Amino acid sequence: MKINGTPYRSIWLGDDGWSVRIFDQRRLPWELKIVELKTAEQAASAIKEMWTRGAPLLAMTAAYGLCLGLRENSSDIALDKTYNMLLSTRPTAVNLRWALDEMIKAVKPLAGAARIEAAYARAAALCDEDVEINRRIGEYGLTLIKTLASKNKGRDINILTHCNAGWLATVDYGTATSPVYMAHDEGIPVHVWVDETRPRNQGFLTAYELSQHGVPHTVIADNAGGLLMRQGKVDMCIVGADRVTRNGDVANKIGTYLKALAAQDNNVPFYVALPYTTFDDTLESGDDISIEERDAEEMKTVQGLDNYEELISVKLTTSQAANPAFDITPAHLVSGYITDRGVVGNIRDLYKFAA
Questions:
Q1: 2-29 pLDDT per residue, tens
Q2: Which end of the chain has the least Cβ crowding within 10 Å, N or C?
Q3: Which positions are catalytic?
Q4: Does the model's pTM come out above 0.90?
C-alpha cells in the first residue's frame, strides 16, 4: 500500500541488510516515524509497547526479532532465551507463537553463520507469505461485497469495521480491509464506518489507511455501531481476529463482541477475516484463550494534537481503571470466516487450513 504516494510494507530491512524498520504506530496518524530495531530486546519492546501491532505483524516482528538475537549470539541457549522473551510479549495473538515456531524449525538444525542466514531467509519468506495470504483474503472477501453491490445497485455498500485490521496490522493489504481496498479499486462504491476503538484508538489507523487509499469513510464512536445498524446504514461488518479456536470463537479487540451482538439483532452479516495462522486448533473454545490485561494508564489518557500542533497526552481520570485488551465473540454470532482458502460458514471447515 502507499503513504503519500510512496509504496511501503509495514516491516522491512534497512539498507545494511540486517536491521529492521517499522513504523512507530503510537505516533500515527499525526506523525510518520520510522524506527530502527537492532536487537531482540528492541523488537520485544516494539511488540509489548505497541510501537507495532496487529496479530500478523506482531508475528513478523517477532520473527525478525529472533534474527536480531541470533546476530548477537547464535548459540542454542541464547536462541531459547530469545524465543521465550519474544513469546511472552503478547499472550493473546496466536500468530506470534506460530511465527517463532516456524523460525525455530528453520534454524535449529544449523549453527553459526548458517543459522543466521537461514533465519533471515525464513523471516523474509514469512513476510512474503503474509502478503500473499492477505491478497487472497481480499479476493475472497470481494465476492461478498460484489454480491451486496449487485443487490443494491446505485448506492454505496456500507461496511463497519472495528480496530485496525489493515495493512498497518499486517505486512501489506490487511485482513478485514483487504476486500474493501479491492472493491474500491474495482470501482464498487464502498463506504466504511470506522470505530474509533478505545482505549488505543486504532480505528484512527484504519481511517489513516483509508484516507491514503482514497476510500470514503466516517469515523464513529465505538458505541454508535448499534444505532447505525438499527437505522439500516450498515450492510455488513468485517473484523479481524487475534485468535480463532476450534469451535469458531473469535478473540479480537475489545468491543468486537458488542458489534456482533448488534449485528445479529439487526440481521447484518458479521464476517471475520483471518489468515490460517490465526486459527488455533490447540484450543477448543474462547474460554481457553488468555485475555491480555494491559496497563490501566491506557484507559486514563488520550493522545492528540494541541492547538499548537504538538502531540500531547491528556489525563482523563484519576479513578481506578481496568483495561482488558480483547473480548471473545462466540461462533454462533459469526456469519462467516473470510480466509485465504475461501469463505466458510462452519469453523470445522477451517481445520484443513491449519495444516
A1: 899 899 999 999 999 999 999 999 999 9
A2: C
A3: 242
A4: yes
Q: Estimate the crossing angle of helix 55-72 against helix 40-48, to 10 degrees.
A: 160
303 by DSSP, 3-state: which? strand
Q: Give CATH superfamily name and number for 138-353.
A: Translation initiation factor eif-2b; domain 2 (3.40.50.10470)
CATH class of the region 2-129: mainly alpha
Place of cell 506482531: 58
Q: How far is 179 from 143, CA to CA, in rounded Å?
A: 8
Q: Region of 161 please: left (phi>0), alpha (psi -120 to 50) or beta.
A: beta
Per DSSP bridges, beta strands 20-23 and 34-37 are: antiparallel
Q: Which position has the grid cell 549470539?
A: 73
pLDDT tens, position by position, 215-271: 999 999 999 999 999 999 999 999 999 999 999 999 999 999 999 999 999 999 999
Query: What gap in Å lies between CA 175 and CA 167, rounded to an integer?
Result: 8
Give rounded-to-5 percent helix, strand, coil for the chain: 45, 20, 35
What is the tens place of the pLDDT at every residue in 115-166? 999 999 999 999 999 999 999 999 999 999 999 999 998 899 999 999 999 9
Half-sphere exposure of 271 (CA within 13 A, CB side): 31
User: What is the rounded CA–CA span in Å between residue 313 and residue 305?
Assistant: 9
What is the rounded distance in angstroms from the CA atom of residue 34 to the CA atom of residue 179? 27
Distance CA 44, CA 6 (A): 28
